[in-house]
Write a structure and sequence with these properties.
8 helices; mainly alpha; 193 residues; two-stranded antiparallel sheet; 40% helix; single chain; two-stranded parallel ribbon
């Protein structure tokens, strides 16, 4: 059987139908996809039993400044992600945002309205359009390996990881840190020969 990733529209429909309590097999019939696709979309970045598997990485492109969050997944994943994105990016006055195509971003219009900036989506299966983000997620994985249970990880530990990455000198920034570049806090250090 041929497998194709669900389109953005299908992902939004899947999330809405899940919220309405429609069984996965009926969702698959309505959308004309295999039910394993619906089950896979259900599992993407959400709770599995009591295990918390989601972390939200937001990145400012030019300074590589990271805002790392653990969205609360209480009522609906996309609503929690939207709140977390707005809360993380509001102080940075974002000019535009680019997301991948996850179902958790179904409320992108709310984000666009709250932050008053355009929202774009990367093409499916095109990590090269998000190279800086993919690289930074690799740095986060040094602290939080993929598939690890994040339920014992508190907001203080997430903030510590965030701080360590933002205060790490980067070659692409001329060995300045992301914080120094974003906030124009370049140290006044005289080097001796």
């Amino acid at each position: 059987m041929y497998y194709a990733h669900p389109t953005r529209k299908q992902r939004y429909q899947i999330e809405r139908l899940i919220q309405e309590g429609v069984p996965s097999s009926q969702i698959a019939l309505k959308l004309g996809v295999h039910r394993s696709t619906v089950y896979r979309e259900r599992r993407r970045g959400v709770r599995v039993g009591d295990r918390y598997l989601a972390a939200l990485a937001q990145l400012e492109r030019t300074s590589r400044y990271l805002v790392l969050r653990r969205p609360s997944l209480r009522p609906v994943l996309s609503a929690a992600v939207a709140r977390s994105v707005v809360k993380g990016l509001e102080p940075l006055k974002a000019k535009s945002i680019t997301f991948d195509n996850g179902a958790e971003l179904a409320r992108y219009e709310q984000i666009q309205t709250d932050l008053r900036c355009p929202v774009f989506f990367a093409d499916p299966r095109s990590p090269n359009q998000r190279a800086t983000c993919e690289n930074t997620i690799g740095l986060v994985r040094q602290y939080l390996p993929k598939g690890v249970d994040l339920s014992p990880v508190g907001t203080a530990q997430v903030a510590r990881i965030d701080r360590r990455i933002n205060h790490r000198p980067r070659h692409c920034l001329g060995f300045l840190t992301s914080s120094e570049v974003l906030f124009n806090k370049i140290p006044d250090v005289a080097l001796r020969a």
